[in-house]
Amino acid sequence: MGIEMRKWNFFILAIIFLLNSCGKEYQSIPVIKQNPLPISFEIRQEQYRVERMSDEIIYLYRDYETADNLNDLLLVRIFIYKLKSELEKDDEHSILKEKIAAKFKEISERKLMLPSKQINSSIIPSNSSFIIPRNKIIEKEMNRWLNKSRNTLINWLKRKNKFAGIVLPLLRKHQVPEELIYLPIVESGYRPKALSRAGAYGLWQFMPGTAKSHGLKKNFWVDERACPYKSTEAACKFLKTLYRIFNSWELALASYNAGSGYISNQIKKQNSRDFWQMDLYKETSSFVPRFYAITILGEYKEAFNLDINDYKDFKYDSLLINSPLDFTYIADACNTTSEEISELNPELNHSCTPPFRNGYYVKIPHGKADDLRRFLLKLDKDKWWLGKKVIYKNSLSVFARKYKIPLKVLEELNPNPSKGDKILIPVGKSFKKITTKKRTSPKKNKKKRKSR
Fold it and tell me: Which CATH fold would you assign to the domain 315-376?
């Protein structure tokens, strides 16, 4: 009996040895690559892998349909997206890939379904400063952006990426939540020259009074509310102040929209600091959920099939210009268009650099600073300024009438001049273009309207 067992053991060991040696020989000689067989081990393995992935997607799709909270929905969408991306790397299985792509599109564009009860937990990663609740208001906002305003959202997220190189470092510098990078989407759609009916202007929609109190200049020449860098710096400081007042980002955001005075009064009046329970202006009540919805969609863009890869970075060089210079000259020197110069300098109210005493740092396309420097060396700067001496108190108003220049502009360029001082008067082509615009009187406008 013992001898027979030893024979069987030997026989089994011999078979294992033969199988191993065959395996090594199979690995060392690339026979299949030279003469691929219709059914090979590699092909079977690949088919099995693809079938398993497709099965996983089908199972995940079932999980998606039965998911009872938003967190599960997001996770399922992300897993499906990753599997789909992995499958698309393969050169073959085109029919299967088409089916999976169609299924993924159906899932990604499907409306979100949430349970009626609210769940007190975060759906944003744990390193976020925001605790975003799962509720029907946020779900409704997300569905609206995904279905009715999907293309608008994609365009605005692209603009967000364009300005991210300016906004994100400033958010980190001032130690405010990085998710606030999505706030200008809600405010302005990341349009530097966006103007609201109430008079709010720029990326962060500052009102004139608030802008002035946070160091943003607004005059005939510039409106720094439209400057991406300076307005973001001011917004960070403002939001930080609001958070210190209310110790709640939801109330800070609400006060950013409606004013800190209004929110403070409502807290006292309603005896509540819970944003979701407070009865506020309709616009303010939807402002925070809209911000949260866009933040979720932006953070999980792959899961919602939002393609925002196609965008242009906001890159530029700055150069000090001491004279008022028309954008067309700058554009010619930099081999670009005046529209691009205007786009890089949205804070300038006119198509020329301002005639400030200390000059102005104009933004030009990246790598074109040397070209503009060479151009400025050839420029006859005396043609841009006219120097006149103050003879009596009302000299500025006299010069304003004589040279057809707004008195306010001369006062800004020459604050409180004394007798004998030399004042500066801009007389270049760019300035003439601004000051010689035809202005119709109200009476003429009235007649025109009647004639229509």
Answer: Membrane-bound Lytic Murein Transglycosylase D; Chain A (3.10.350)
